Amino acid sequence: xxxxxxxxxxxxxxxxxxxxxxxxxxxxxxxxxxxxxxxxxxxxxxxxxxxxxxxxxxxxxxxxxxxxxxxxxxxxxxxxxxxxxxxxxxxxxxxxxxxxxxxxxxxxxxxxxxxxxxxxxxxxxxxxxxxxxxxxxxxxxxxxxxxxxxxxxxxxxxxxxxxxxxxxxxxxxxxxxxxxxxxxxxxxxxxxxxxxxxxxxxxxxxxxxxxxxxxxxxxxxxxxxxxxxxxxxxxxxxxxxxxxxxxxxxxxxxxxxxxxxxxxxxxxxxxxxxxxxxxxxxxxxxxxxxxxxxxxxxxxxxxxxxxxxxxxxxxxxxxxxxxxxxxxxxxxxxxxxxxxxxxxxxxxxxxxxxxxxxxxxxxxxxxxxxxxxxxxxxxxxxxxxxx
Amino acid sequence: xxxxxxxxxxxxxxxxxxxxxxxxxxxxxxxxxxxxxxxxxxxxxxxxxxxxxxxxxxxxxxxxxxxxxxxxxxxxxxxxxxxxxxxxxxxxxxxxxxxxxxxxxxxxxxxxxxxxxxxxxxxxxxxxxxxxxxxxxxxxxxxxxxxxxxxxxxxxxxxxxxxxxxxxxxxxxxxxxxxxxxxxxxxxxxxxxxxxxxxxxxxxxxxxxxxxxxxxxxxxxxxxxxxxxxxxxxxxxxxxxxxxxxxxxxxxxxxxxxxxxxxxxxxxxxxxxxxxxxxxxxxxxxxxxxxxxxxxxxxxxxxxxxxxxxxxxxxxxxxxxxxxxxxxxxxxxxxxxxxxxxxxxxxxxxxxxxxxxxxxxxxxxxxxxxxxxxxxxxxxxxxxxxx
Amino acid sequence: xxxxxxxxxxxxxxxxxxxxxxxxxxxxxxxxxxxxxxxxxxxxxxxxxxxxxxxxxxxxxxxxxxxxxxxxxxxxxxxxxxxxxxxxxxxxxxxxxxxxxxxxxxxxxxxxxxxxxxxxxxxxxxxxxxxxxxxxxxxxxxxxxxxxxxxxxxxxxxxxxxxxxxxxxxxxxxxxxxxxxxxxxxxxxxxxxxxxxxxxxxxxxxxxxxxxxxxxxxxxxxxxxxxxxxxxxxxxxxxxxxxxxxxxxxxxxxxxxxxxxxxxxxxxxxxxxxxxxxxxxxxxxxxxxxxxxxxxxxxxxxxxxxxxxxxxxxxxxxxxxxxxxxxxxxxxxxxxxxxxxxxxxxxxxxxxxxxxxxxxxxxxxxxxxxxxxxxxxxxxxxxxxxx
Amino acid sequence: xxxxxxxxxxxxxxxxxxxxxxxxxxxxxxxxxxxxxxxxxxxxxxxxxxxxxxxxxxxxxxxxxxxxxxxxxxxxxxxxxxxxxxxxxxxxxxxxxxxxxxxxxxxxxxxxxxxxxxxxxxxxxxxxxxxxxxxxxxxxxxxxxxxxxxxxxxxxxxxxxxxxxxxxxxxxxxxxxxxxxxxxxxxxxxxxxxxxxxxxxxxxxxxxxxxxxxxxxxxxxxxxxxxxxxxxxxxxxxxxxxxxxxxxxxxxxxxxxxxxxxxxxxxxxxxxxxxxxxxxxxxxxxxxxxxxxxxxxxxxxxxxxxxxxxxxxxxxxxxxxxxxxxxxxxxxxxxxxxxxxxxxxxxxxxxxxxxxxxxxxxxxxxxxxxxxxxxxxxxxxxxxxxx
Lengths: 387, 387, 387, 387
What we know:
Four copies of one chain form a homotetramer.
Chain A: H1 6-21, E1 32-34, H2 38-48, E2 52-54, H3 57-60, E3 68-71, H4 78-87, E4 91-95, H5 102-118, E5 122-125, H6 132-142, E6 149-157, H7 174-177, H8 181-197, E7 201-209, E8 214-216, E9 233-235, E10 241-248, E11 253-259, E12 268-275, E13 278-283, E14 289-294, E15 304-308, H9 331-346, H10 354-372, E16 378-379
Parallel strand pairs in A: 1-2, 3-4, 4-5, 6-11
Antiparallel strand pairs in A: 6-12, 7-10, 7-16, 8-9, 10-11, 12-13, 13-14, 14-15
């Protein structure tokens, strides 16, 4: 694994747990974790349960005891590491968004195609597909419970930037993060909407905004910015929020909103689909629940029902607890590890693939383009057949 | 009152009840109701409590015992009746949307200005401003409880057109209704968002869609289409749904969605505002509740609180029941009647005025224009100073 | 109508509105209202829409233009007025609880039986049976949607006595009110539970409590206690709260709680039934909703569904607004008036009858007896066959 | 650890994870797991991460590399194992309920007192105290946010016995399980109510019921009942449901309900407290949320607020994910492990202690006694001072 901050801790919990809960065809061994600061990465290895620590990812990907490289770094290093790892004959799991640009994502998808031919697999970490309620939603749409989908509406609302004195972190720096709420939150909801609806976004019309354009510089070693004093300010170079409307391939209308300025909304990834035969609604703040309205029932006794997605025949639930004993956020990483191990053991293509990640990247790029062009409707190029 | 269908029944309940519940400076007398079918309008007068029935609105507005004309007809007749009534020296209450076009709305606003100079008042029936929770929301924003508003998101979701066999009614005919979900539902949410936020929409980017382009013709006298058989179909000439993003005067980002295709959503007018100091959320399907998050409190004990808007010091509640004994939909018409009577008694301008209705009409026109122009951002002309 | 305070205002709204909204076989005329204070009752008549005012209920019940007497006074006068009115050949609607003691209630039920033989009808005002969601719940249980009922749990939580400085009103005086939360709130939930479950409570085990035993005396004419200063205190002679468990005739277990000390709960009448085939849940603070779980469905897609009880084929909804346009508290009085008018027009026994009111009174008496006897299980005598 | 079924798996997840997420003063090593079936326990050790497997708990508690014995067996073996382990100089964590009888619990509490004097600690596994929302609730009550508590109402509703064909498992056998819903679910809610309220139950009045008195015998080796055919039936010897009212030491009224017959309720442990200054409400099916009403605020802007208990300064949250990224059921076992390790490292008494477990056992015994004695109010003996 490369990187051991928030995402690294979450992935580690996934790797430690998957084989203890699920029957896996292969048991993952946590060989080594990599970071630039030697003592910090050794402490992280000890804490998180990795057998060894490395300070150079190039060394890591040459290790013989490493068959899979899990990339948990900021987006600006994804392409370089992932392509090198794939070319070195390793399977790769890469955090989302796949890259900071369409060009990088295309190169990564190409590398994944080459690797696939040699037997290596590449997967992108859109972990919310592994919330059981989202996997169930996908199944229900695929089973026709919604009929033709008319509307998709998705928001991802957080509030950690409401305070104008929150400092500049790497997530607010375009060079490192690529974009702001759009790439961080918008990437999740574009992938999730397409996954659940089972069809791609084909065009968007967008507005973006940076509400607070300057913020205090970070102080302290934790940010690697020891020269910066708290008194100074620096520019925010990414979006604070993005709102966009879209059309899906079927003709459905969609709306998206990603923001870090929704006071009181902590992790409100909300998704609703309305179809001819039914509707689904979900809120990540209540991730064990899926709301379903069956429009084929008599109106007098129908309504949105709250399915507690904790039954033994729900996706991923065969290995967990009795009904009503809910799961949490990091279970998505356990499920991600499980699914990737199965894909590797069986040699099947994992989903979401790098091609899926590239498609999301194209949507994000179209959002930025539309926002720059007076919100003009901007089509998304379809993926090439070989994708 | 002109018209006695759904809106006519609701307005009648308002006029019958306002003086029985509130202390009014004037007691409204229900002089006459008007409709084209003589026996039907007489039955309606008897049922709804009007002293007389008329079959020609021109006669109605000449009656000496009529000081106020309440217009509850489809939008295509609003301008003619309202302007004539104002010019005849009557006060006017006109259902929303104010008109079927900006041109008509401008003429109506001009007539209202002329009438105002003579002492007559004109009000447009955006009744949802009179939901106590919405009046409270407006107060809280005005009191600064939200600080600078960053986001407004509003939907108005219904589902009565999901079935493709639902017949063509006047609401699906552009000539009578002006537009579809946009004018019917979108007008409400544009007005309500501007009212609660306390600032106008200054530009929009929009998509509209007609999912079902042909529907069975209405049969039966009730539709005035006796020649049409149920076997035939006719074209739907209005939108089924409209989604649009917007900017408000302060720079806040907004998103709007109006649709009649959201299976399971019966009357889901949902409004959320996020500001620097707090957030508000509302759902018309639970109209006695307002959710409020106070972002100035410590995070550890804060969260969206559900205010039951039924306290004696909440707007309009001084006259109703003890806390927790909720109100319903038609109470908005009782409150509308109350407020208009107070305005007439005191000679003060009622709100929303015809100028407010015109402004909403301009937003709706910009939505249609943007939808036709590839979703390009379309500014809303500001109201002239004399408005 | 006798009495014109809170209940009188609510009943008046019912009488004014029923014939304007529903097709009634008879149109009620609001002949006269009665109260002891002449000028106050005349003002109330004018405000509420009654043609005349009386100051002695004995005079009222002798009027030839009065066929129905609606009793909205405190419980200590119910028996005398109701029996006299029935014996005078009038139909009677009496507010709940039917009386302040089982003895009074028995006399009233006997009077109702005598009157019934002569063609007069008597009804008790358990208005919550007329919440559409509750009528729907009753239908669903009767239709077997729940199968054998195992559990009933009902609470009625209010909070207007939490403040120890809230003054002594008539509702806190045993002589006038009979009991406290038990008779006021408990009567409602006992009736409602039995109505929805379709079977009687057969025994109870209870605890009651008076948390604040002294309160400030009322000042001012409104209380008829002008001699009392705010400085003095007087004893609270009724219960503040009652909790009891019960068995129903079928063997189901039930729990009840009535209190005026549940801070933040304004009108939380919550009812849940669990049966072999399904469950129902309701909260009066969201009175347009009924939650239903269908246990015969596959667990993977089942859950409590929120039925918006606003469809045209829901009870009472044929006359109101489109789906999703909710009703409020006082609609229960409109429905009560409608149902009583139908009963009178057709000569059929209205429900709840005085016998139903007597049965509730026996449950309340058993609760008090159990609370006095160390919570010992106390059976409820069955109603005699002629009831 | 003794036992490796549902509870064993949950505890193992706790032990594996605690030191990887929290900074612990000691790092737990998972030395050995014990079960009667040799091959099954070896498979469990491999799966769950235990270094060794034992088939006799007496051997296990003699191992030098074992300092702590975690007991995850059915209740009938708790006393014997726990007392032996404590007497052998081991710390003990014992699943709830502490024992199957008051006598056993008293012996265990006495053993814990003796062990405490020698430096060994004993803790009982009421894991729901470790739901962050419950720990926060306890803090808020202790901080006086509720003032004097007037009402406590708690239910624990499940539905896995609704189907009369669900077979007889050990949980339905009095000899193994001690009691039914009462000991399994009721023990949790009695402990939790006392913990959050900060005061003991002092007396109860109860009803219990067994709705389905015979069930199919288990077949198959998994039940250790290979001779039994599916055609036969056996008696259910425990309660299916228990409802009881109670008084707390402060005079507050409480109501409790534990059942396995609430169709559609999967794990509905619901707790509400109403105090003079505020109220709290919780539902285990939404375990990341705590509802709080602050009654000291103006009524016009107050209401139950939904606190997402995922902030960094909430109990246990310092080590987990960003706000809004919720936890699940098994996190309570991670927290339990963390707290016990801290207690051992610092030599402080863990909570809940065996004395706490004994007190709960006395409440459960009083519930059974009251149910047998016609629901008569039954006081709970206070714990002796040395407890």
